[in-house]
Design brief:
This protein is mainly beta. It contains one helix and ten strands, in the order αββββββββββ. The chain has an eight-stranded antiparallel barrel. The protein starts with a helix and ends with a strand.
């Protein structure tokens, strides 16, 4: 619930900012979400961007590490300078492990295909980019097989 409230406040903040923003070529930073990740984004064209992520999550004897890569198409939102919405697709690899009294200890590797939908904002006066996105994923195999709609994050990145 706290994550949903935080996401709504982040979107409200993004829409209320009135400073003029400028474009950026590349950015690196953190994705604060499910899971906590490192993110690198670079634009390959005016609208096309590539983002690579690596994340980790752990709780109650259960953990995973994942890597992902996404191609995104960015489109301006003309009413707010520097704000863009984006969509895209990509792939992920997940490396699971668990050690729980409820199930036998083990591990697994899963692969997923993902969609991406989000908002991206670049501040004009400082080298900071923030974004919020949703990444629904369809697991092809392994632990977590099937559809999962719960992935996404708020990201903060240093731009260069």
């Amino acid at each position: 619930m706290k994550t949903k409230i935080f996401t709504v406040l982040a979107f409200a903040f993004l829409f209320s900012v009135t400073t003029n923003a400028q474009d950026y070529k590349s950015a690196i930073g953190l994705r604060l979400g499910y899971p906590l990740s490192i993110s690198y984004k670079t634009f390959l064209s005016e609208k096309g961007a590539f983002e690579a992520t690596a994340g980790f999550r752990s709780y109650s004897g259960y953990s995973w590490f994942n890597v992902g890569a996404y191609y995104q198409i960015h489109n301006d939102i003309s009413s707010v300078s520097g704000l863009r919405w984006y969509y895209g697709a990509g792939a992920n690899a997940y490396f699971w492990s668990w050690d729980s009294s409820f199930i036998n200890p083990g591990s697994s590797t899963s692969f997923g295909i993902s969609g991406v939908l989000g908002l991206d904002y670049k501040f004009a006066d400082i080298p900071l980019n923030v974004s919020a996105d949703w990444i629904p994923t369809f697991f092809i195999n392994g632990y977590g097989s099937g559809f999962s709609g719960g992935y996404g994050a708020l990201a903060a990145r240093y731009t260069f």
